[in-house]
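pasting input
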Amino acid sequence: MIDLHIHILPGIDDGAQSWDDAVEMAEMAAESGVDTVAATVHSNLPGKPDPREAALYLKQLKEFRQILEEEKIPLTVLPGMEIFAGEEFLKRLQKGQLLSLNQTRYVLMEFPMDVPAAEIYRVLFETTEAGYLPVLAHPERYFCVQKVPAHVYEWYQMGIVIQINKGSILGRFGKKVQRTADSLLRHKIVTVAASDAHSPYIRTPDMVELKEVLRENYGESVRQRLLTENPRRILRGEKTLRTNPVPYDYS
Ligand SMILES: [Fe+2]
């Protein structure tokens, strides 16, 4: 399995807070069957644009890889960021101050929870126009999607990669988020599921329960596509596997 969205690098964001946390998270991920992660730290957060962001990140990534090697933890850690789609993010991405997923054209993007749908459409168009392939982080958590999940159908049809969270599927963010995640899965408009883990205690990288729930509720092929095949393709810069989505019928 591959975890495309995890806050495992310490000292940069609200994810792992120490090397011990990071190592514990790596062990947990590996034990639950994950062999590769993209260490996606929060970046470009409002009020904190830091031109050194990518350089600091890469230094930390290098150190983490060395620690994992010394500790003999079988986990490959690839570069990536969860980029807040605020002002100037495209310019900063083009300058190399922000990082795409494993140096591909795929970019993991997040919005504030109360973002209007129109703003997501605008940014997705703009990002696609600039030659990038947006990976939309946890749309099921955005209020506009909870109200009108059909927006995600439109984004999926635009070729946007839709990434939902483990915690959403398992009900850790409440019933509304869980129902929305279920709706997206039943309409076959989800490309990837990831842990979005922040610590070894709550919001963890353990994937065992998610794997089982996906298989039981949506089938083995969905589990395989969302947790292994599509994240692998994304990290290689390849096209993802897509299904025929089920349109929303509001009549
Ligand atoms: Fe995240």
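fyi The radius of gyration is 17 Å.
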